[in-house]
Amino acid sequence: MNYSDVDIKKIVLHQLRSYWPDVNEAAISKAMPDALNAIEENYRGLPNKRYFNGNDVVFSPYVSVQWMNFLYRLSNALYKEKEITSADQVYYLNKIMHSNDWFYAVDLPVHFLCEHPLGSVLGRAEYGDFFFIYQGVTVGGNRRNGILEYPSIGNNVILFANATVLGDTHIGDNVVVAADTFLINERIPDNCIVFGKSPDITIKVKTEEEIKSYTEHIWGW
User: Fold this and answer.
1) Range of the domain at 188
2) For tag attachment on the chain, is the N or C end more exposed, with fewer CB atoms within 10 Å?
3) Which of 103, 102, 129 is nearest to 117 (CA)?
């Protein structure tokens, strides 16, 4: 990658210490390789030269969509190391810098990208691989009959601006969720475009090839 691990660590520590006096440098150092490896796996092979130049992964702390992804990966790595205070700090830093809420206890997939994701909330859910979001997206739980239910999202799913996915909603593979769509307790099949607001939604069935051709410029199938 085009920045050394040492440079990245210095930037993270500088940003964290701007807000908190009790930053655990040892914990950050230990979690850093896992976060950087996750970024490497996320971006390798992508067709967009912002992420992969044909030989190497391109990663810069000055590209906000990359930095917010990295901070999520770092907070998640810290959480898995049971360094909860440090995970909280990095998660909070991501919220302060980018106006997003990607909780560290949530496992976002290996391949996750976003564009203009200000105001996005990615809460507890099962996320499939090759997941892409835009601004204002919300994914989270809904309490029904005293039970808190969460969504599951399949592989190769795009959530366009201000799409909301709540509760016991199951989205299949190869699905495009249109802008301003609101889904709660819905069943969305594979290979389709969905729009509208529950319970009045419209599903346009497509082939797997059609949806994959639509996302080929993102993932380089």
Assistant:
1) 106-216
2) C
3) 102
pLDDT tens digits, residue range 21-62? 999 999 999 999 999 999 999 999 999 999 999 889 999 999
Q: How many CB atoms lie within 10 A of CB 95?
A: 15
Measured distance between the N- and C-terminal CA atoms of the chain, rounded to whole angstroms: 23
SS3 readout for 58-92: CCCCCCHHHHHHHHHHHHHHHHHCCCHHHHHHHHH
Question: Is the CB of residue 183 less than 8 Å from the CB of residue 202?
Answer: no
Domain assignment present for 30 = yes
Q: For the domain that residue 181 is a member of, what is the CATH number?
A: 2.160.10.10
pLDDT per position as a tens digit, 116-151 = 999 999 999 999 999 999 999 999 999 999 999 999
Residue 90 has pLDDT above 80, yes or no: yes
Residue given tokens 């969305």 in the structure block: 188
pTM score: 0.95
Q: Domain count of the chain?
A: 2
Q: Which amino acid is at 55?
A: N
pLDDT digits (tens, 9 = 90+) for 157-183: 999 999 999 999 999 999 999 999 999
- The tokens describing 80, both together, are 């898995």
Locate the DSSP E strands across 70-206: 101-102, 112-114, 121-122, 126-127, 131-133, 138-140, 142-144, 147-149, 152-153, 157-159, 164-166, 170-171, 175-177, 182-184, 187-188, 192-197, 200-205
Q: Do residue 51 and residue 120 come from a single domain?
A: no
